[in-house]
Structure to design on (551 residues):
């Protein structure tokens, strides 16, 4: 479904260049949920943005839905892949109602039956019809993230990219959103890539997990390996230990 | 206003597109009306509009052009509330009709300046690269012209008149709007909600006009309102120099100019239109200040 080989992203500004992603390769199978974890600045979000075509990248292979993804993507190509951003406070247009936000993708792709599709999308993500004509500032963080998910799914894309979809939310809301994503993955038969710094979240949702450090891929492990702690790289072991948090014995 | 309608408009859970839009507009209007500065400004601007529209009725049938040489330079009285000028024309009705000229200039300049500034600024800010460089250098060139001097040159080249005054003012007034729109666009363009529409496959035109321009609009409107005073003063200045509206059209700047010779003996000839310029400029400034408070993102 998604294939990446030797993906490199370099940002240049004022003569300085930052190698954000250095030669990463992986494949995501149809229907799989693939996780990418790593600390801040490890380049995990950049990988996602490169696949989405939001940042310029170079690679030997970059296939989306089994086809090479061009640098300039057509409207039909865009439709294959949607994105849920980290911060639900920044990802919704402040002057548009939920209704406007959800109608926009349908209008861009000239899809009919707008009213019914918007109603269905609102119901699908667990929002109520009374939320339809509200502005983002009249919604809570969790509700906003639900709107962002509805917007990503309203075109029925085969691929969903999730960039830390819960890290800006309250702990109790995080669980709700994660369960919603797990449910939608089934009903929309999605292939998805989930980026997170939270090992518990990835272990819960993903089949396979890539560990990244400083722009490079450390290893790819299965969720079972992660839960059992059977990993080969030292960095992964450190990451797992860090995620367990402070223990009195080691202090 | 009935409470039921008020509640319907202020509802946090609107049930239709229309209710959501009307409710949002109602909240905006309410915040302008409840802001004292904006309200005073709005009243003055409304007064200007009303006197321009209803000038023939408000002047009680006195034409601004009828001369009465026997009654020239008459002091303010019951017959002529603001007195008469050097040709015996009623200054009260001339001031009312002068509002029409002022309003025409203000309207034409905003209709020209705001769209040009918005388009140039958002294009430069969103596309960046060489488009940005070229558009901003053009903006710099226009910014380098002194407004009044360019207006003088225009009037000299094309002949004096309101249209040419509007062209001259517009040519020098749009660059600040392009700058504002550009800086706002650069901040907005990187935000996630614009990235989201890019990923949906929206065209650049759609992104600019449906997503970026609406967000730049409020600061452009504030700036435009604050600029109105300057535009009115420039127009009056051109009129004073004889390069704006031509006689016998009643225009405040030209009226001040004609009262210049008699300012010590017949003060009202120059003072009354001068007061009109002052009050209207003040009104636009107050309204602009108030609008800035209302549109301030930190207060919403």
């Amino acid at each position: 479904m998604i294939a990446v080989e030797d993906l490199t992203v370099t940002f240049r500004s004022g003569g300085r260049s930052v190698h954000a992603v250095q030669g990463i390769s992986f494949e995501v199978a149809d229907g799989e949920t693939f996780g990418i974890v790593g600390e801040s600045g490890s380049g995990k979000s950049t990988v996602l943005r490169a696949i989405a075509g939001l940042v310029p990248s170079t690679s030997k292979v970059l296939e989306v839905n089994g086809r090479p993804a061009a640098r300039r993507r057509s409207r039909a190509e865009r439709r294959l892949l949607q994105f849920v951003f980290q911060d639900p406070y920044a990802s919704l247009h402040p002057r548009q109602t939920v209704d406007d936000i959800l109608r926009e993708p349908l209008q861009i792709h000239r899809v009919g039956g707008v009213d019914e599709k918007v109603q269905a999308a609102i119901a699908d993500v667990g929002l109520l019809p009374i939320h339809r004509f509200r502005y983002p500032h009249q919604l809570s963080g969790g509700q906003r993230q639900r709107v962002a998910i509805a917007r990503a799914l309203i075109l029925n894309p085969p691929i969903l990219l999730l960039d830390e979809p819960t890290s800006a939310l309250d702990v109790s809301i995080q669980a709700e959103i994660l369960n919603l994503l797990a449910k939608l993955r089934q009903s929309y038969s999605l292939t998805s890539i989930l980026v997170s710094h939270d090992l518990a979240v990835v272990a819960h949702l993903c089949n396979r997990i890539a560990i990244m450090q400083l722009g490079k891929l450390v290893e790819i492990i299965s969720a079972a390996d992660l839960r059992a702690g059977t990993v080969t790289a030292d960095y992964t072991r450190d990451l797992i230990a860090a995620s367990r948090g402070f223990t009195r014995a080691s202090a | 206003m009935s409470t039921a309608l008020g509640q319907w408009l202020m509802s946090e859970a609107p049930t239709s597109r229309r209710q959501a839009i009307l409710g949002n507009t109602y909240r905006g209007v309410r915040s302008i009306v409840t802001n004292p500065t904006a309200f005073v400004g709005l009243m003055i601007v409304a007064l200007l509009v009303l006197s321009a529209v209803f000038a023939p009725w408000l002047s009680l049938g006195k034409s601004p052009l009828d001369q009465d040489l026997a009654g020239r330079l008459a002091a303010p009285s019951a017959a002529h509330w603001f007195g008469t000028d050097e040709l015996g024309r009623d200054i009260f009705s001339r001031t009312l009709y002068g509002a029409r000229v002022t309003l025409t200039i203000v309207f034409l300049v905003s209709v020209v300046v705001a769209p040009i500034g918005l388009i140039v600024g958002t294009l430069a800010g969103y596309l960046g690269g060489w488009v940005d460089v070229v558009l901003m250098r053009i903006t710099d060139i226009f910014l380098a012209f002194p407004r009044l001097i360019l207006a003088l040159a225009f009037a000299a080249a094309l002949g004096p008149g309101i249209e040419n005054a509007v062209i001259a003012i517009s040519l020098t007034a749009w660059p600040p709007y392009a700058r504002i729109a550009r800086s706002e666009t650069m901040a907005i363009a990187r935000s996630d909600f614009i990235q989201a529409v890019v990923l949906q496959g929206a065209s650049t035109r759609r992104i600019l006009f449906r997503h970026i321009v609406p967000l730049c609009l409020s600061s452009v409107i504030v700036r435009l309102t604050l600029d109105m005073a300057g535009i009115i003063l420039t127009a009056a200045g051109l009129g004073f120099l004889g390069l704006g509206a031509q006689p016998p059209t009643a225009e405040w700047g030209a009226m001040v100019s004609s009262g210049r010779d008699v300012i010590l003996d017949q003060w009202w000839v120059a003072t009354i239109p001068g007061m009109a310029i002052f009050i209207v400029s003040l009104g636009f400034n107050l309204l602009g200040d108030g609008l800035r408070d209302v549109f301030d993102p930190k207060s919403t």
